[in-house]
Amino acid sequence: MKYDVRDLSLAKEGKLRVEWAAQEMPVLAQIKERFKKQKPLKGITVAACLHVTTETAQLAITLKEGGATVALCASNPLSTQDDVAAYLVKDHKISVFAIKGENNKTYYSHINSAIDMSPHITMDDGADVVSILHKSRRDKISGIMGGTEETTTGVIRLRAMAEDGVLGYPIVAVNDANTKHFFDNRYGTGQSTLDGIIRATNRLISGTTFVVAGYGWCGKGLAMRARGLGANVVVTEIDELAALEAVMDGFRVMPMADAAKIGDFFCTVTGNISVIRKEHFRNMKDGAIVSNSGHFNVELDLKGLRSISKKKRVVREYVDEYTLKNGKKINVLGDGRLINLASAEGHPSSVMDMSFANQALCAEYVVKNAKKLEKKVYNVPETIDTAVARMKLKAKGAKIDKLTPEQKIYLNSWEMGT
Amino acid sequence: MKYDVRDLSLAKEGKLRVEWAAQEMPVLAQIKERFKKQKPLKGITVAACLHVTTETAQLAITLKEGGATVALCASNPLSTQDDVAAYLVKDHKISVFAIKGENNKTYYSHINSAIDMSPHITMDDGADVVSILHKSRRDKISGIMGGTEETTTGVIRLRAMAEDGVLGYPIVAVNDANTKHFFDNRYGTGQSTLDGIIRATNRLISGTTFVVAGYGWCGKGLAMRARGLGANVVVTEIDELAALEAVMDGFRVMPMADAAKIGDFFCTVTGNISVIRKEHFRNMKDGAIVSNSGHFNVELDLKGLRSISKKKRVVREYVDEYTLKNGKKINVLGDGRLINLASAEGHPSSVMDMSFANQALCAEYVVKNAKKLEKKVYNVPETIDTAVARMKLKAKGAKIDKLTPEQKIYLNSWEMGT
Amino acid sequence: MKYDVRDLSLAKEGKLRVEWAAQEMPVLAQIKERFKKQKPLKGITVAACLHVTTETAQLAITLKEGGATVALCASNPLSTQDDVAAYLVKDHKISVFAIKGENNKTYYSHINSAIDMSPHITMDDGADVVSILHKSRRDKISGIMGGTEETTTGVIRLRAMAEDGVLGYPIVAVNDANTKHFFDNRYGTGQSTLDGIIRATNRLISGTTFVVAGYGWCGKGLAMRARGLGANVVVTEIDELAALEAVMDGFRVMPMADAAKIGDFFCTVTGNISVIRKEHFRNMKDGAIVSNSGHFNVELDLKGLRSISKKKRVVREYVDEYTLKNGKKINVLGDGRLINLASAEGHPSSVMDMSFANQALCAEYVVKNAKKLEKKVYNVPETIDTAVARMKLKAKGAKIDKLTPEQKIYLNSWEMGT
Amino acid sequence: MKYDVRDLSLAKEGKLRVEWAAQEMPVLAQIKERFKKQKPLKGITVAACLHVTTETAQLAITLKEGGATVALCASNPLSTQDDVAAYLVKDHKISVFAIKGENNKTYYSHINSAIDMSPHITMDDGADVVSILHKSRRDKISGIMGGTEETTTGVIRLRAMAEDGVLGYPIVAVNDANTKHFFDNRYGTGQSTLDGIIRATNRLISGTTFVVAGYGWCGKGLAMRARGLGANVVVTEIDELAALEAVMDGFRVMPMADAAKIGDFFCTVTGNISVIRKEHFRNMKDGAIVSNSGHFNVELDLKGLRSISKKKRVVREYVDEYTLKNGKKINVLGDGRLINLASAEGHPSSVMDMSFANQALCAEYVVKNAKKLEKKVYNVPETIDTAVARMKLKAKGAKIDKLTPEQKIYLNSWEMGT
Q1: Are A165 and A144 in contact (CB under 8 A)?
Q2: How far apart are CA C101 and CA D107, in angstroms?
Q3: CA distance B13 to chain A (A)
Q4: Residue C345: its pLDDT value, please?
Q5: Mean pLDDT of all residues in chain B?
């Protein structure tokens, strides 16, 4: 069995933490029980490139219980939890290739190690496996039945590939499941981003001006939580509809050029590049705190920031203080990497429970439907989505109404009068 | 010119109120200016069955400015504003058939009067015109290019008809425009429903338990506003995903059988029938206040309520007090009709501005594309949706960012690295 | 029996509405039951100058059940509900002097009619009775045991009088009871002010900029509810601490000169004079909507507004449109009088229940302690305050914990270790 | 110079972190500048028993700049930041006696070391110095001019002592300054308690039931933030007025016996003992998470919990999992000590800025007024309170209005008409 982790002796601590996460992952637990009996992934190798956290551990174990051989590598060099990696290798015999803080070269070699295992299914969190397969490992594409993608960012790239006719195998856009992005992006990113910012800074949010760049599901969640902590929230957008929604939700909407001047905190969640640029950094207030919670660390133009700075020092773990040539100090958190993983622990288990339930069920779906699927990006089947919601609701102890026979008839009829 | 309104001498008051609404309808105003010049509806007759309010007046005037002949009838017997009807007839020579409080027979005869004018386009708010055309006026269907539908309820019925292959002409589901249902259903229904309940009762919302039946866009808006006024909100649902969202938004979710026992206020916004039934009424607290804000007055089973009551009296305008056989008193507002129109003035102009901008632009779209459209239910074209958002945002004075050339490339590329 | 009301035949409608209010006034109901038995106000004449509403009717009836002779006049010419006045006269033989819309002369003559009845106790809502007694009816002062005052505004004036040594008899500041101003000012004013604004305008609050002048308890309530309806709220203040609290609550704080330029809605709740002046009106946006919810109609400088206007017309009931010489239109609601009474129905019964329970219990307290009280402004005794809270909580069905014996000891001890 | 800290070599890291805090403490910075010039504490020894954090460091430095000799010991064994302690000793020559995790014996010996320095002024955070002085170091009392107290808990104890006539010297209740408890207790405790809980557990708050015991300022802050993060909040209380306020704020209020059965999270902020007892633990849901954010670790009856448990293990740093004899697992955070210090970093600097500005100014006040002050508990003088608010508001960049001459006259007059 191949693997590359920091230190196997960390397995014991990892075990405790993975068990802690499991308490909040009742949906995946139900799926694991079924997989254990039915082995729907028997003979299947899964290459999963995900944040190596306690929640991902539950997914990996679930896939293995379903009969799969699992190769797990990191989707971000900073997010790996070394004790979890050790635990998966030692106690579960899962091939993990991930070390927290690994450099770029090791990062890519780890992805290649996973590809070396000739996967039938890929699981991506930012399309890195798909990307490498298409760029330099095209020989391995033919053996792949299909893949899944966890992030908005990844889905955008994959749809662009499909549109260009270059996508080599079918992908299920797990990100687009309602039980994924409605919950993970909004409630998960909302809380965990603020958690990351507060851990990194220990600053009071209440009474500050908090600028959220992007009002997609992540941005909505972040804006809602920043307000919930007492901030006066400003939103920047490039889309008319999202901007209008932000206005109607009571937020101020303005271009970043204006927001830059008044913000105490800034956080990008756009999926786009260079959202905060040197012309913005230059006009910020002295002491402004800037972070990113989008998938890639490209949303802040740190190169531009460096070009207008005369000094940079670490003033606190995860806080780089840049002194600009104009004398102002700007604090950048977590080197611009997604802050909820850099300085906190990523999404709480409770939301990952649903995302990863979708992952597990979509892997099963790909195997069952391998022959029918084309080289396209697919939505998560509605039956999977509803099943996940039903299992979660039950775990929450919330009960709902059922349609009466009369109501069913009414909803299906157009003849019933006013 | 044919018409049937209460009293033409009310026109003067109607004029003032329509002008008041116009101040908050800048999007429709822009469209009206263009229509005036381009006359895209020249030679077209529109039969519009909508709530006859100040905002609808703006739409009717806009259509007329675009060259159309307009026949306007009421989509609800209680929602007609007689002064507005008079104003449209007297000052704008628009054929209005609507009298507040008209009985069922007059209501349908008014719809038929509009149909008598042989419309090329129908505009519905609950599918009543479509319904009557298909039931008893089939001769008029052949002359129709297409129609639009304003409500969720109507769209559900029309999709059912399309599915059954019985829909006689194409319909654009204006309700499904993002600039319609995101705003109208959520912000409009949210505020105006509480406005209606407060006007009808003068009760304090703060510190009460408020039960919202249904967590669609209307229900989300209502729950958000009831909480915003200090209520402890309980949600009932039949859909797993919506129920889960309500839980995550911090609301309690339970079956109506449980909610019935603890609510001070109840309001249905489901689009379904008999959501609150006699088994629920019977278990409510003494003095409970029950209303509906869904399109049709079928959501409360008032027949069932009457069957378990021993007395009914009007205790305040729009408040019927039922004394149950078990001694408890239940207050039903506005006879179960949608409360934001029954006891208040319906959606504020600001949201109707967007809905009706979509209506006007979709009417133009139907005329332009009459030959291409099939007998189906169509979504509002995205270009119309975006145009409406852009016009509204501008009117709000909110500015947004534009994509930089680098960002455009990034978003369209899948090759740019991590 | 003397009285002066609009029309006794309105009594029937008044009765229904007073009964409706009674459903939400369980605390006063309990007090009424006790008063009925104990007659603590036997032989006492009470001159009450309050808004003549359904809730005040309950108070008047309670006082009468306690043995008092009651003279009721209006504390505001616009707030009288003629049907309630009729009902009190006809069914309860209470002397009411109040007609909705009465002019200034009648207003004062009505107060004098109440004073003519030689009260032992005065109840004020803005200190008008006290004021007239001290200015022109000093002969009646000697017979007075004491009085109560309902408003912040009144208490400020009365404390100034006491400080100047000119107060002629003791006053209990009912306004300062926790169960009064915490609830009435915050929850009552919050909701009812927005209710008044919405009824007067039918405008959507969501997505607008709402300027609240003053962040006392009324201002806090109003800001909270405006935000709860989706507004972006701006606060103006003259007090450092209140301003800081507003900042920490996430609102923008700025001088009125700056707020004037950005507000869509303005509402004053300061207890001060000329808070919005012509230099502010002049810089407002075209179409701005301005109202007052403070006690007196002096917070808006309408004289100043008229001096910079070229035209004024009524565009909707309760809406005066001023066209400024600079061409902009400013809409003033309810002629600057407190808007929750002008265009809506004042505080909901539920909060008045607590305020008026304090009034009734304080009247009893004044009678019992007449000999001990000095010519000062007194706080409501804590026992009264707690009793009101306990009765309300019970009516709400909420239960609380009781201190254990161990906890009682702990709270009274300073020796128990860390 | 005497001191007892973990390791002087940590000073460098401490320096960076103290500087970081200083950025958010502009009010104290202004005071420090003045103290530096005026030396109002020349010749004065201050024994400060406070949480040894970066913010306290700023206070200690400010006092020293004012001329004082400072002895600093910890008010809680777990809250000491060893690097900060080292920095104060090494760079500022301040006597610090505090080591994170010190046992009870060392804790008290450290307090005695501070007392050994014969203070003129004591600063307490929970009345421990006062307590020890009165119990076992009475000889040192005569030299003391006065003291200050930071917490609600301490003030309650000191008032009890004053009432019993046993308080040996005057105390200023810094806790009761508006600029302290309005901000520190509400905004500081609110955010930092949730920060502590989230760091300890990494659990999602959204969609859970969060039970807050106590609705004082801390409880209000905590409830507001828990709701802000998406929880459904339940409040328990023993005071009628506070309970009623919670109801009106939209929370459910119930006895702990009922809340115990439905909570996912529990947090006590009461200042009382044994608020959650074994009869409550026994009925909690499996997996319930219980913490305390009140000053002393007595609010959870952990002895009672142990008596009904069969197993206890650490499952995550700061998380003790108790397995009850009935099989359920209960997770207790930070051993019941105040969670915002145990697992997070205590109040953010921004709120401590105001609390400690009050501390510094009250120390100056005690020195200036030593002869006038009696052995009582004093409120913070209003001039100090207002000065702190003014300085903070300025630092926040928020401007407010000033009274016009006309307004000043109006507010001081009772003769100005309606």
Answers
A1: no
A2: 73
A3: 31
A4: 87
A5: 95
pLDDT digits 0-9 by tens, A100-131: 999 999 999 999 999 999 999 999 999 999 99
Q: Structure tokens of A400? A: 């709902």
Residue of B nearest to C344 (CA): B199
- C132/chain B closest Cα distance in angstroms: 33
Least confident of A295-309, C298-312, D399-413: D399-413
Say whether C230 and B228 touch across the interface (CB within 8 A). Answer: yes
Strands in A377-379's sheet, in edge-to-edge order, are A95-97, A69-74, A45-50, A121-124, A146-149, A171-173, A377-379
Predicted confidence (pLDDT) per residue in C275-314, tens digit: 999 999 999 999 999 999 998 889 999 999 999 999 999 9
Q: Do B179 and A241 touch (CB under 8 A)?
A: yes
Question: Tokens 């699927």 correspond to what residue?
Answer: A373
Query: Which pLDDT does position A77 carry in this prediction?
Result: 84
* Residues whose CB is less than 8 angstroms from the CB of residue B275 and which lie 6 or more positions away in sequence, other chains included: A407, B213, B214, B236, B256, B268, B299, B300
B213 to chain A: closest CA residue:
A401
**Are B401 and A255 in contact (CB < 8 Å)?**
yes
Strand B329-333's sheet: what is its strand order?
B252-253, B232-236, B209-213, B265-268, B288-292, B329-333, B319-324, B309-316
Contact D169, D146 (CB under 8 A): yes
Cβ within 8 Å, pair D232-B251: yes
Enter the tokens of residue C299.
Answer: 């917070």
Residues from D in contact with A at Cβ < 8 Å: 16-17, 19-20, 23-24, 187-188, 190-191, 195, 198-199, 202-207, 225, 227-230, 287, 315-316, 319, 344-345, 347-351, 396
Cα-based torsion angle of the residue sequence C147, C148, C151, C153 in order, rounded to the nearest 10 degrees: 30
- Which tokens belong to C85? 């006045």
What pairing do the DSSP bridges indicate for beta strands C45-50 and C69-74?
Answer: parallel
Distance from CA of A241 to the nearest CA of C (A): 14
Mutate which: A211, A227, A229, A247, vs C, most C CBs within 10 A:
A247
Q: How far is D161 from chain C (nearest CA, A)?
A: 7
* Calpha distance D261→D284 (Å, rounded): 5
- Give how far Cα B393 sits from Cα of A222, B22, B182, B191, Å: 22, 17, 14, 20
Residue located via tokens 């937020």: A251
Backbone angles phi, psi at C377, to 5 degrees: -95, 120
Express each pLDDT in C104-155 by its tens digit. Answer: 999 999 999 999 999 999 999 999 999 999 999 999 999 999 999 998 889 9
Encoded tokens for D220: 């209000």
> Is B244 in Cβ contact with A273 (below 8 Å)?
no
Record: contact B190-C207, CB cut-off 8 A: no
B206 contacts in chain D (CB < 8 Å)? 248-250
Task: Give buried/exposed letters for A107-129 (b at 16+ CB in 10 A, else e).
Answer: bbebbbbbbbbebbbbbbbbbbb
CB atoms A207 and D350 under 8 Å: yes
Q: What is the pLDDT averaged over residues B118-129?
A: 96
Give residue D417's pLDDT band: very low, low, confident or very high (50, 70, 90).
very low
Of C207, C247, C250, the CB nearest to A227: C250
- What are the φ and ψ backbone dihedral angles of D76, each rounded to 5 degrees? -160, 130
Through-space distance between the first and last CA atoms of chain B, rounded to whole angstroms: 69
What confidence tier does B47 reach under pLDDT thresholds 50, 70, 90?
very high
Euclidean distance between CA atoms A204 and C248, whole angstroms? 10
Q: What distance in Å separates residue C254's CA from the closest CA in chain A?
A: 14
Alpha carbons C171 and D393: distance in angstroms, whole number? 36
